[in-house]
Amino acid sequence: MSQDNLTAVLYKTKDLRLEQTPIPEIDDDEVLLRMDCVGICGSDVHYWQTGACGAFVMHEPMIMGHEASGVVAKIGSKVKNLAVGDRVAIEPGVPCRYCEFCKTGRYHLCPDMRFCATPPIHGNLARYYKHAADFCYKLPPHVTMEEGALLEPLSVGIHACRRGGVQAGQSVLVLGAGPIGLVTMLAARAMGASKILITDILQSRLDFAKQLGADHTILVTKEASEDQLVQEVRRLLGDSPEVSIDASGAQATVRLALLATKSGGVAVLVGMGSPELTVPLAGSVAREVDIRGIFRYVNEYPIALSMVASGQINVKPLVSHHYSLEETLEAYEVARKGLGIKVMIHVQPRDANNPQS
To answer: Does pTM top 0.90 for this prediction?
Structure first.
């Protein structure tokens, strides 16, 4: 086994370095992975630029990366579900398995969750990384490593739609056409939504959303009032949406989600914005609009993999930029500037572990 373990380590705000680190030693229930694809998430950029993301704050150097796929290089003595050479998608959060939340099936709320690249837990943007075997999912032969890495954001979108109760024939409003908004749109369509409207402040993102299958788009400008936007949503959909999903976190989009949702409908809040917001709560209460938060995902990785493998959801177009591990700093700069949609870092040569067409 090569001793090269080039790793992307964030030492402090705006101080991201590539350096050699020791290859991890695995426990009996873990696997050692030769990493392949690692996507850059908005949270990665937040840590890089500010040293924090929401309530999670860096206090010591941290290895980056959590949207990832890799190839099994070594297995622990108790591992039965995987073999050396298996290509896997990595669900980045490993819970305690023993607390109330874990035992009742909501392990994403485990207070002792160890989540990649969330302080103080290291991530997986490295040549080699170890992970719990039961949170690695073997990829079918026709699924690419890029698709495996994209199961992470897709799981967020699926969780948002499941929390919103998206059903066949419903109209869905998605606020924000960034990567999470787009995968939420794809998940809503796969779950049967008949009309999907997506909003953003950038026309280029809306154009891309349209290519991916959005029925309608709204470019939100500073001049547009809330009332005008609510009326435009109703005009385009023919009625108020049964489900609205905010994938931005901005106060303006949260407000629009609550105002636009049909009475008796559901507003799902995905985006992490300011700790406190001013929102039209009384009107939402009077109209019995359910307001539901989501945090990451739970039991959705197998669903995401099934949807991708079956062709129900195509995430391949989301990857707009490709970089090698050695080009990590350049890749992060592109992500920071918001160029393209999803920036993918290839730890191994691109397509080295992909199906050969």
So the answer is: yes
